[in-house]
Amino acid sequence: MAFPRDFRERPDARRGAALDRADQRVLASPKMGVLQERMTTSLTSVAHLSDQDLLSEVKVAAARERKATARIIALLSQLDARRLYLGEGCSSLFAYCTQVLRLSEHAAYGRIEAARLARRFPIVLDLLTDGSVTLTTLTLLAPHLTPVNHRQVLSDARHKSKREVEHLVARVRPQAAVPATVRKLPSQKAPEHSVPPAAVEQRVHTGAARALSPPAIRPAVVVPLAPEYYKVQFTVSRDTHDKLRRAQDLLRHSIPDGDPAAIFDRALTVLLSDLERAKLAATERPRSSRPTMIRSRHIPAPVRRAVWKRDGGQCAFVGTHGRCLERGFLEFHHLEPHAVGGPAVVENIALRCRAHNVYEAEAYFGERLPLLVREAPAPTYGMPNSVWTQLPACSLDHSAVRD
Ligand SMILES: [Zn+2]
Asked: In degrees rounded to 5, what are phi and psi of residue 334?
């Protein structure tokens, strides 16, 4: 029997003989064959949808999913109030959600938070159903909603991103500024068992760090504490630490306490100035530029400055659902392509993210684009430079605002 690709690649499936007999029986059962057939049938049916039907149906499906989620949350709310999970053999609602409903821990946590919030403020079910708020939004807001503020705060949170909701929380419940700290993380030889980052941090505080592994590289933390203050936390190398110490020494006259936040701000100010000068040709005293050769792909500095300012440093592509919000991987795009004589003037240049730059090039050139472009559509999150350098200069404008 042939299993779907993702099934074959499950780590436990790869172990083959290591699968226990029960699992093997399930995988080989007629029921599993039916499931596989259904999945194939389902994929085949959507593969034949037109672009327009696909866009319509996915919106309908998303609306149904929101409605189903709100329904589960309402049911869980009652189930929790009646503590029915106890009779089912579970010690908590969380155990019931993960063990009986087979929800992931993350999904269970979000739904339980929402269920308990819905009991206090039933309006959240309507907001979930119509897509005004997500489970993530509710999880962030739950501790800060009160009978007095919940309507206003939930209204302010409608259609907001996670980052925007974090700002909202900082406004509703401002926190005190955190003190600047620079501390060395443990770097002893790794033991056999890895230690979760949270445990590392906790043991550092308790002075029990000696037997720990090298600290795992954790993503930087940037969270708003109050409308005008953020907490920024990251791990740096010894070299960076030494640079900080040198900067503190050199800046004693103007930053006597060596505040890392003040030095961070100065460093970023200089960095941004350098980047803008290098990438956007930004200058306080612009010179008149030389006339551009007709065949040159060069975009004059005044044009780049004007385009950047006009487009607000954001992709200016406007789709049927609105303007693209991307501010990374930006490139200068010729509206009328350079390959067909489009001039490098402000009216003909616009900012595009990399994905939309390729999208428009494909739309314009169609079959004339090399196979490489059609086989490697631009992903949202970057693409190896080697792929991009293989694109012919005549078919794709990618005068990058990047490194
Ligand atoms: Zn875009």
From this structure: -85, 120
